[in-house]
Input
Amino acid sequence: MRFIHTSDWHLGKTLEGQSRIEEQIKFCEDFINIVNENNIDMVIIAGDIYDTSNPPAVAEKLFYKTVSKLANNGQRCILIISGNHDNPERLSAATPLAHEQGIIILGNPLSKSEVAKYNGFEIIEAKEGCVKLKINDEKIVVITLPYPSEKRLNEVILQNNEDKERQQTYSQKIGEIFTELESNFEKDSINIAVSHLFVTGGESTDSERPIELGGSLLVEKKHLPSKAQYIALGHLHKPQKASQRLNAYYSGSPLQYSKDERAYTKGAYIVDVKADKKAKIEEIYFNNYKPIEVFKCNGIEEALQICEENKERDIWSYFEIKTEEVISQSNIKKMKDILKDIIEIKPIITSQYEHDHIDMKDKSMAEMFKEFYSFSRGLEPKGELMDLFLDIINEEGETEDETN
Output
């Protein structure tokens, strides 16, 4: 049996307010082709389908259209779990329609599917946190743990063990659930685990929303399901192996979602596996539809030259410019006229800021904020940002009045 492991699509995600939907559409089109060309029997998407719990309609439409094409009216099994960015109830809302096509969506810890037979595979048993499949005359057991927030995890633990002492750490609770779920594995079946977790030692990036506070929601490697032939993980955006002892992998996100994700290629894992045999794992790489570039310049003239040299490229760009004075709005406009999609122009002031000692008492808070923002980022604050700032100032003013 051959499956592909991907995660962290973050459909609807923006880059500093700039839409990434065109890149995401291209990725989804290419992913469908990759799945078809590689004769994939099952697609596993390990959480963070969307970037927010309330995704835009265009993102939801793209997702449903994509997984419907992947499923091909029940020819291929699609298994999806929720991540920490997803609203599990909203993600699972499409289950009745999805189930008809052979798309399994699991939102909460210990969610269950339904027994069903499709054109290309069969769900032969459906239990809490476990689905047993038959694909190509092979039996596959998949244990699943969609993103277990501490609240959801405690609800599951207390529901199943009302009288048991509940003083374990978060990681121990995860380990206990995996141990129970592993009892579903069989000697003559292909045994897979799928979850959305932050395993200790994983390399994170700036674009991930933290799912742990002070290390409390980290999962130790020893608490992962040791009997699984492959563990498909979601959350971390850098593709990586989560354990040297186990076949536990993060597939990573399909696109560069922050500056620090420029250093490695995005992709997914294609896994060939048979019952009671070691899994064969191959990494497949995705196109970089619109690279993120960081340009470090000595002066505005070099920055303008870089803009000219790259004006034909479709890129997102950040500029860090060493300068002895604040970059003028006219020069900022010149840069943005030459090169589109500049995300940030950050001046690195090499001399004392000449306006340090200007008397600010005659300036409004809005004017001072605009000057500070332009000085620190090289761009004027947008309307929404200014509105938010003024709302905060007004709220603070009202609070002071009430106190007085």
Notes: The first helix runs from residue 21 to 37.
